[in-house]
Design goal:
Layout (H helix, E strand, L loop, with lengths): L1 E3 L9 E3 H10 L5 H11 L3 E3 L8 E3 H11 L13 H11 L3 E8 L3 E8 L5 E8 L7 H10 L1 E5 L6 E7 L7 E6 L4 E7 L3 E3 L7 E9 L5 E7 L8 E4 L2 E6 L1
Parallel strand pairs: 1-9
Antiparallel strand pairs: 2-3, 4-5, 5-6, 6-7, 8-13, 9-10, 9-13, 10-11, 11-16, 12-15, 13-14, 14-15
Length: about 240
């Protein structure tokens, strides 16, 4: 099975943890939110500067508008306990000054720091809860192994997974070829999680949509029996199937 992974942006470079440590030491922020933010960044050896599908260098007004349009209030925290109030005020004051955005995550939150364009000062930060329930890989496997079949995606005959295209994670694609040589392309919208198959499980007897005990929809490529190890499974909002 051919697997196409996302490509790094041209010119990708990284800021090393040891350099960030010196910036954190001179920053003027404090409190639990700032401590949690630093801990998240210090857990990563090198932070990528360029994003694959989003802007990381722009005026402060751009980042403020982006934040305000996507998160108009403070969600479940309401009072802005993760740095949102100071963040909005600071970016308003900075106006058209260009900032470099860096992102890191811990178990429950995504953290963002905004550096001056020369990468010498941290000017703002904020955090937000990750969306959705906190589910472990064991929950994924339970969904996949015990889900209720909603529908078949392909004719019930053996097929081989030829390609798994993850270059755009928001719309992952799978190509399968049946025993007659017909090739189908399945494009998944709103892709959240992917379980890669164990070696030998690329030959599938059934492709189905299931609803797991967690309530999530999975699209599962089941090998013929008996099989060992993990199967190809994609958790997504929907799928479109077409004959190539």
């Amino acid at each position: 099975m051919e697997v196409l992974s996302p490509k790094y942006p041209d010119g990708q470079h990284y800021i090393l943890r040891e350099y960030l440590r010196t910036l954190f030491a001179t920053a003027h922020f404090g409190g639990q939110a700032w401590s949690d933010c630093m801990k998240a960044f210090m857990g990563i050896r090198a932070i990528p500067v360029l994003g694959s599908n989003f802007t990381t260098l722009a005026p402060a007004s751009f980042f403020l508008h982006l934040y305000a349009s996507r998160e108009p209030d403070f969600g479940t925290d309401r009072e802005g306990r993760w740095g949102e109030v100071d963040f909005r005020r600071t970016l308003t004051e900075l106006g058209e000054q260009r900032l470099q955005m860096l992102i890191a995550s811990d178990e429950t939150r995504s953290w963002v720091i905004y550096l001056s364009e020369d990468l010498k000062t941290i000017l703002a930060f904020h955090g937000r809860l990750k969306p959705g329930p906190r589910l472990a890989p064991e929950d994924d496997e339970h969904d996949i192994g015990h889900g209720e079949v909603v529908r078949d995606l392909l004719p019930a005959e053996f097929a081989r997974v030829d390609k798994l295209d993850l270059t755009d994670m928001l719309s992952a694609r799978v190509e399968v070829r049946d025993v007659r040589g017909q090739c189908y392309e399945l494009t998944f919208a709103g892709c959240h999680r992917i379980q890669h198959p164990a070696p030998g499980n690329e030959l599938v007897a059934q492709a189905v949509e299931i609803r797991g005990p967690s309530g999530r929809s999975w699209f599962v490529f089941r090998p013929g029996e008996p099989h060992n190890g993990r199967v190809l499974a994609i958790q997504a909002e929907s799928v479109a199937v077409r004959l190539l």
